[in-house]
Amino acid sequence: MASFDPQIVQDFLTESGELLSQLESDLVTLEQDPGDPEMLNQVFRALHTIKGSASFLSLGNLVKIAHAAESALNAARNRVVVIDREAMDALLRGVDLIKEQMGQLAQDEPLTEPDAGLVAALAALGEGRQKRPVPNADASSPTAQTPGRPAGPALADGDTALVLGEGKKDLIEYLIGDLDESLAKAKAQADRLFDAADFRDAASQLFDLADAIARSVDFFEVAPMTRLCVCLRNAAQAFGEAPAEVRAQLAPRLGAILLLLTSKTEALRRGVICGRPSGTLVERVERLISGELPDARLPAGATGQDALALDVGTAPMSVPPKGAAATMDEPDPATRDHPAPVVIPEPADSAPGASPAAAPIDARAEKEPSKRSGVPGGEHTIRVEVNRLEALMNLVGELVLQKNRIAAITRRHGAAGAATQESREQMSLAASGLDRVTADIQVAVMRTRMQPLEKLFSKYPRLIRDLCGKTGKKIELVIEGGETEVDKSVIEELGDPLVHLLRNAADHGLELPTERVSSGKGETGTITLRASHEGSHVQLLIIDDGRGLNRERIAAKGVERGLVRAEDVANLPDEEVFRFIFLPGFSTADKVSDLSGRGVGMDVVRTNIEKLKGLISLSSQPGKGTTVAITIPLTVAILPAMMVGVGDEVYAVPLNNILEIVRPDAASISSIGGRSVMRLRDSVLPLISAADLFELPEGGVQTPFAVVLSMNNSRVGLLVTRLIGQQEIVIKPLDGVGARGGAAGGATVRDDGGVSLIIDVAELIRMAQGRAGA
Amino acid sequence: MSHPIGQQTSSAGPTQLQLVTFEVAGEEFAVDILAVQEINRMMDLTRVPQSPPEVEGVINLRGKIIPVLDLRKRFGFPPAERGEDTRIVVVEVQGRVLGFLVDKVHEVLRISSEIVEPAPAMVCSINADFIAGVGKLNDRLLILLDLQKLFGAASLGAAASAVAAAA
After folding, report:
1. What is the pTM of this model?
2. Is residue A749 less than 8 Å (CB to CB) from chain B?
3. What's the pLDDT score for residue A413?
4. How far apart are CA A647 and CA A724, in angstroms?
């Protein structure tokens, strides 16, 4: 791999990574409506951009697969093939391979050679070979021409209207833009051909550019143009090794080819196929390539214009050029040679000589310089390394802590009465100003890390598609609220749980089409993934309209595993029965399938969601479907907490988990089987004394308050000494301390500079339940 | 940084060692100055439940939460009251920042590696594994500590799992 600036490689990875994930979901959308010209074009463009960037970076293996996929899509766009399931499988496998290669690029490893079978399959599609006949291809229309073959009979003399298929129209502009770009670059290289020191490099660059031009020209299915491109490419290839006198004749003629292509491109822009003949020029160049000097010679120092005048003539484009070229050959004062009698321009254009079939290019277009179209406008966004944002986020965390300290000092100062009334007021004014600014900065910095959930969601249509294939079910995935933004770290943590949940819904929730029909539902099951903001939280719903959870079966399994006594089952609310699913190793599936059933998934889901300080709950109606609701905070770095005192120590309790705080009287606390519980209205709440929990010396510590904590519908009361107040806390990891487990889920710095442990509510509830079980 | 100093003498000839010396339970110890980040006065420690016994608690070191260990406990010395002279020596060991409590910090000392000898089997009451060497300095005996063995991930991890096993 050539050594490129790591920054450029990184940019490529980021940019192409985004394009790829969009591409993937677009492909799945495309499958729903394989003929959708809009989608076809969008997919084509994305792939084209990736390929362009990859060839700039000389990633031959990536270009190879991207090119094959691109030509398959091009054929689909030309209505030569239809993207059926098989074709889509090949395309998606291609996308997978590109992803894999990009992973390798990121690791600085060599890229995998694409699977030859896959490339061949895609290339076959590109050449219009598909097993099934194409139902809607119109064989009589010129647009139905296979791009890999010459486009039939030569065009009539003079200009003709450009006729392109429906699916191509809105791409014309785009491809002409491409052509312009490549042609301009090619011209620059062609000028260097005259340079004795530079010509080899220029020729090889030109060779690559000729490929790029050929690809764009291919689209328009104008055979003479294709022929010019092939000729240009062959000439560029031969140029480097050609003798000097051949080069002197060839260089201006290559310039002429480019001029001709430019004028023909201009015509295309106007919707016209330029009929200006190019046969003579092509033929002379071909002879030069084989080392034969043509009869019509150009003088030393001739330019592309001169060559154009000699070999094509300067006839205006719309003049029927038959014969004109021949006559134009003669007046050239620089040459005494006669125009060869074989020069009959028109038929030459469609001559079988250099087969334009070579146009679907081999994958040597590796050094195609800076084909970086599709780079976003760049005016309103910049890419920033995540590390920098992370550093900024940490600093803001520190700022919040310092602000809290200032606020505390201000309060104490005011209370102590050490300052005058005026200075007290000024201080509190300054402190509240600081407070406001800090809060704004915090929000602003947090926003920089926010990303739309779409980033995650766009991967799922593909997942569901694959699941459909594996399960034989018909599933429609409806995604709502993809624009909802959450912190980057939340997105990362949310990926796995959502995949698990979607798999579960597809594998367990939804029924097979026959079963659905027999229970009066439509064949196609629907899974809805819905995201929305709920205050400082985001709610995610995964709703399926399948068979629902089987309460009996889950309850039976629960009894079997000793989670509940058989006689109590009937009284358990549905919710609590369903909660069993989240326990490690709990599975009601009789057999382990490729997709799920190992009893690991839901446990992982719950753990990940809890890591995000989120809540997860399940509801289900037999025969109607299941809904999984996940509520997660927008960010995990800073959270509001209630500071509580236990003896002389201060702990932080996440505010989100606090239901209420009560002051139980002695009568309401009792002991059941050695553990204390309290009666709270009409329910029984297990109690944990913070003094026991944190191993405070026995006795002497009063704990009159019970903080009622809840997570995922389980509740526990934590007995504490005093309530201090609410504070925004920054979560700091407790690594390196060597503490395993325990009720401390991290630490934070208080406003007085001291350290407080943060109570891990999930762990606390597990402890309460553990004791209950024991 | 905290490579066994004794080996240096045998392989590379005499070099100058720069050490921070301190006192724990009446004995004088030293660590390589390069490992020491800073030395702080005693501050409030926050206890961490279910941590290894020698972890006294955590402190806030300019926004970073670091554990503080009691060298007396690590060495198996009897506990003592913390006084005016108690200091927290903050070191970095294998990329981890941690602090340890000492009774008193003495000085920064420059000695030649020539006067450092490998630890004899029984030089004092502490585990010989923790000792990188012993320096004889006029009438003083300096115990050079091997911080990696003392605080390295393996040693603390073992302590932690021992606690877990006991629980």
Report:
1. 0.50
2. yes
3. 72
4. 12
